[in-house]
Design goal:
Layout (H helix, E strand, L loop, with lengths): L3 E7 L5 E2 L23 E20 L2 E3 L2 E2 L4 H4 E13 L2 E17 L4 E21 L3 E20 L2 E21 L4 E10 L7 E12 L4 E16 L2 E17 L1
Parallel strand pairs: 1-5
Antiparallel strand pairs: 1-3, 2-6, 3-4, 3-6, 3-14, 6-7, 7-8, 8-9, 9-10, 10-11, 11-12, 12-13, 13-14
Amino acid sequence: MKKTITYCSCLVLATTSLSLAGSSQPLTPPPLSIENTNDGWYYRAAIYLWAQSLDGDIGVRNNIADINVPFSDLVDNLEVGFMGSLEIGKDRWSLLLDLNYADISGDHRTPRSSISLEQKQLITNLVLGYEVYQSNSSTLSLYGGMRSNWLDVSVDFNDHHIDQDKSWVDPIIGLRYNHLFNEDFYLRAAGDIGGFGISSDLTWQAMLGLGWQINPCTGAVIGYRAIYTDYHDDGFTYDVTAHGPVIGIEYKF
């Protein structure tokens, strides 16, 4: 049976309590074209809204939760959210920090089960990038770094209770592609893979977005993002794909 949690996460510049109709791994909303400062350095901050669905399995040993929290319950799901990124760079090099925190809860009943979910999760991506290709309209960058996860999840279903607090770090490698259609619009794509059995068996991320450069310092983007994590530890299973549309604003300074 398909296991799905759907909710919406809103980034703010500081952790904020939210009441929102509508939480997981690096990348920020697609970046703008860069005009370096006189010393060659640039800085970029981003905030974004990510409407996510979680599809997968969460459980301990043979007790695997069949979770299905519909979109109509979104207003109750997100209690606190913080999502943002900061990138600094010079010449062909860049360093990106991306944070995604959400505290969600929800209840759902089906003819065969009653499920109560509470989850807090922080995903942190820290990657170093190098631009390996550049033309008048396109760039391609290779990046590598780490994706850390902190997860505190509690699930009650079918007379079973799961309560786990886990943290782990995965190495990741990936590519980021930028293409300028003209002075106003651009395309961004990014993808990475990691884990390699060091912590997670496998983790990957993919993102595609279309951006609009509002002015030389500010841009807006809309796209789609997905992060997959297959993590097992001491009988605990977290085999989940987080995916959904993303919309964001970024500022270069």
